[in-house]
Batch of 2 targets.
Target 1
Amino acid sequence: VSFLDLLINNKNGILSTSVHHKPAAEPCVVPFISDHPRHVFSNIIQAALLRAVRYSSTFDIFEKERRAIRLMLLYNGYPSRYIDTHLRQFFGRSLSKSSMLPFIANENQFLVMKSRLLPQLSVKERETQHRIAAARLSKETKDTNDKEKMTTITTISRQNKP
């Protein structure tokens, strides 16, 4: 079953998730020779890798997607050295300093990388959480004020009774 850019598979009751590639959109991204600002190319790589980490339920699925990302970038004119540099930057937190290979080697390293990358909220998620917290605080303040008013009214009413 595919939903947006997520593919969910059920094999004998075992669910797995991966990136869903829409045939009409893949493997096209902004070509490296375009006149876009340089940060756009870096962001394309980072976003594709983050999507792969987020949606891949296993290391094997992630590795397949990482290779597909590399091929997509090469197809769109990204230099191999540029791709490798950005892969190293992305995986830098999960690799040892002496590693020359820009990839994760096993399921454990994949899970460590995933746990380090995914708890990070996006700007939009942080803003949404801030708005929710502000709304809750506002509601709690209003509820407290309403209770204080009721207490005051009750106290005044009792004092006025003969």
Note: Residues 2-117 form one domain.
Target 2
Amino acid sequence: MTTVNSDPDVTTNNESDEKLTAVNSPFGSKNKGAFGAITKSIDQLNQQAMAAKDIEARLREGSVIVELDPALIESSFISDRIGHDKEAFAELIAAIRDHGQNTPILVRPHPEKTGRYQVVYGHRRLRAAVELGRPVKAVVKELSDQEHILAQGQENSARANLSFIEKALFTKELDERGYGRDLIISALSVDKTVVSKMLSVVNDIPYDLIIDIGPAKNSGRDKWYKLAKALRDKTFCMDVQLHSTTDEFQELTSSDERLENLFAFLNTKSKKASETAIVAEPRKWTSPDKSVAYEMKRKDTQVDLKFKSEDAGEFGDWLSEKLDQLHAEFKDTKSGE
């Protein structure tokens, strides 16, 4: 057995047990330097691999800003914006072109496509990078779907750049995907009452009409509440949808103006409806013995009955018990016409 520092030409009596090493190799001492260089290279490669793993870990933890090719990045699986503000986007492009991208976007490794990414927030900055033909600065972080939603919602709420109706649509999409109210509340930093009202608004106002109106960033939630309430009347709803296709509406460049235009249209329709509503004269009847007085006021979808007498309560009870019979007689009369 050769020791670590023995001459490679000197052997022991038990040659079958001899192990070749860098120092007792049959290639001789002239190759020691080459083997040492190889060993050094392997060590360097190991160090580089460890460094790469460390960088990869830091990337996935979101502690490193990198530059990514925008072509490798896809939109969030949850939409949170309606349309695009062309003027504001042009200003963003100019700012990034002149001063660079100061704030990175947040992306996560795409959950279904290897080598690709998904935006958590920063869609406008990504679009600006595409327009400018440059890489986008990003933080890459491993996130679950729920963590993705929380980060996206909280970032947009903190920046206060989402309008009420955009948040309402975001809420509806999360609700339809089966995410619980607690997650929605945390993502948007609102309470249960606001979440319920948001869902009510986007359920009462047709989706296509919301898109036609746009984000209306300067219009508060009260206007959307009022519009939703008005559109519960199906006739009004159809009239408003038809009005949204007119040139008067479509030529308005501001979404806030379009929302105001619909209110003006609704007010005009309501006023005309009130002016043309047919209010029937009250019908009155008094029993021959003057013991009971009856009055009926009829409206489009409502009839008000009033009885006056000392025993009006008893007569009302008796009439209530006869309603099934009276209604059947009424139906028979209608069918015989």
Note: Residues 19-58 form one domain.
